[in-house]
Amino acid sequence: MSASSVSSRSxxxxxxxxxxxxxxxxxxxxxxxxxMAVIADRCPAVQVTVVDLNADRIAAWNDPDLSQLPVYxxxxxxxxxxxRGRNLxxxxxxxxxxxxADLVFISVNTPTKTKGLGAGQASDLKWVEASARxxxxxxxxxxxxxxxxxxPVRTAAVIQEILEAAEGRGEQKTFSMLSNPExxxxxxxxxxxxxPDRVLIGGQDPEAIEALSAIYRQWxxxxxxxxxxxxxxxxxxxxxxxxLAQRISSINGIAALCEATGADVREVARAVGADSRIGAKFxxxxxxxxxxxxxxxxxxxxxxxxxxxxxxxxxYWEQVVALNSWQQHRIARLVxxxxxxxxxxxxxxxxxFAFKADxxxxxxxxxxxxxxxxxEEGAQLVIVDPKVSEAQITKDLGQGSLGxxxxxxxxxxxSAAEAAAGAxxxxxxxxxxxxxxxxxxxxxxxxxxxxWLFDARAxxxxxxxxxxxxxxxxxxxxxx
Length: 480
Ligand code: NAD
Ligand code: UDX
Prior knowledge:
Strand content: 5-15%
Shape: globular
Largest sheet: 8 strands, mixed
Bound molecules: nicotinamide-adenine-dinucleotide, uridine-5'-diphosphate-xylopyranose
Helix content: 40-55%
Distance between the termini: 51 Å
Strand order of the largest sheet: 3-2-1-4-5-6-7-8
Radius of gyration: 24 Å
Number of domains: 2
Number of helices: 18
Structural class: alpha/beta
CATH superfamily of the largest domain: NAD(P)-binding Rossmann-like Domain
Mean pLDDT: 94
Oligomer: single chain
CATH topology of the largest domain: Rossmann fold
């Protein structure tokens, strides 16, 4: 939609009370749950209801046993425990919660489209559109509608059009539209929410911006609350993720060059990151970035660039994703090569399946692609992860046994030592702290010789590792 077609009438100009008393969040996922828990915790005077169509997820959020929450995040149980039942509620009564709310966050999933126009790149906005229609139908009085999901630039115009149609029916309802993208990272969601680098609010209605700012000011210093127009806010989120992912592909490319030349990527990263213009963060080489955001958001950026005829810009960003996939295949190929060119029928212990440490999330985890490649080669994988369930791995890899044609298959083990028993190699794919403190002598004793450790996260210190045991050959990302 062109800028001129975005209405600047009532939708952006209705006076609102700057005091929010009731919030509804549509979507009780990795973002909606933790974000609303922190808002409720920090704003005890505001009633916060998180709604979802997924009744199992809501039931898990309401489970009296806080270790059963559907999202694993360090510290989340404590925050939920403080606020739940007081001013934090989880419910499937979507319309009821919207009707009661002064402000509605839309925090639903926006995955890459799998079919139709833009398949493989564009974001699938069907859940966002459905949410906007539900808000248009159920809202009462004046409601501030806030995009919390990560969205293609100009999505607010679509939501506005749906909301305006409801206003136009002459019902007593009006809306203001804001963009407030979420920058939390999984595994550190609670500290990220409690002390954010910045909170970004995009919009055109000063009163709505002030109302949402006032919520965040309960715990975020005012100078960290940035305001922009809607489109800058939407695009800033995609750009931030693209820049972060770009750094990872950059260092992973250099890691491969380090392995070929005798340099050590950790030393290179330290030297490069010491330049204050570059900075030290996000220079950790690994098996490639995973998670639900980076790939999806870059592909979305690529799609948008092509849509606006910016082919060179699209090709530039597309390469960040291409290098990421290459890195995953490269690691699987390298394992096969080191194990004498075949892993058929060989037992390989896989340490870590989550896309990073301290989360139970496996979306786009590099472990999935690496395991799939090795299964195709006929390997017998034994997987250990402190938080990922067998049911989730079955969704990601399929059934444990691949059947008669391919000897490949996988099973779970409850400890690294159990997984390594009789294995030719251990693959360290997620940097869980406990994998950094294993008894490698004990593990070496139960492995088949010659035994390998492939540390795809550079979690171990090679000097300490080698001095502690001589019987496992070590390959480390970015060092060889
Ligand atoms: P998620 O899949 O974990 O949760 C989304 C939830 O929305 C699901 O439980 C789903 O059932 C629910 N839902 C979908 N349509 C609905 C509807 N019409 N009514 C009620 N509920 C509905 O997703 P997530 O990881 O929380 O991500 C949500 C958004 O936040 C995405 O746009 C994502 O890109 C963005 N984001 C994610 C992260 C992250 O770390 N996961 C960080 C920043 C931003
Ligand atoms: C990311 C962004 O960091 C966050 O701001 C945004 O809101 C959502 O997307 P998340 O995907 O949860 O957060 O985790 P992040 O810490 O960014 O890690 C993403 C992936 O990159 C992981 O697979 C991680 O292991 C990998 N990574 C990260 C590296 O390989 N090297 C690094 O130096 C940093």
